[in-house]
Amino acid sequence: MTRAAMDFASRAAVVAGVTTLLMVVLPDVALACPVCFDGRDENRQAFLATTAFLSLLPLGMVAGAGLWIRKRTRELDEQEADALAEPKAPSSPE
């Protein structure tokens, strides 16, 4: 193992150790979102509703785009089929 790799490994171990120690000593700092654990029911319900909305919004947008593409593709296919099915006018001899 090269010296640079050993230095990197030792630094990574120190950072991991300090992070673990801080999370054990100061668990309140490690909480991701203090709103999740709010004692008032109104805040908790608002948080859950917003979470559901923001989770479903991108899925709805992707589904809507997929449905629009499907509809547009079918419309173009129908137009192409109609254009091919139309009889062509005979050209007049000159």
Structure commentary:
The chain is mainly alpha-helical and 94 residues long. It folds into two domains: 1-30; 33-83. The protein is 72% helix and 0% strand. The chain has two helices and no strands. It has helices at 3-25, 41-85. The longest helix has 45 residues, at 41-85. The radius of gyration is 31 Å and the shape is elongated. The N and C termini lie far apart (89 Å). The mean pLDDT is 82.
Offer a concise description of the structure.
The protein is built from two helices and no strands.
What's the end-to-end separation, in Å?
Answer: 89 Å
Largest sheet data: none
H/E element sequence: HH
- Poorly predicted runs are none
Averaged pLDDT: 82
Strand % is under 5%
Tally of DSSP β-strands: 0
Helix percent band: over 70%
- Please give the count of helices: 2
What structural category arises from helix and sheet content?
Answer: mainly alpha
| Total of domains | 2
Principal-axis shape equals elongated
Write the layout of secondary structure elements.
Layout: H1 3-25, H2 41-85
Attribute tags:
single chain
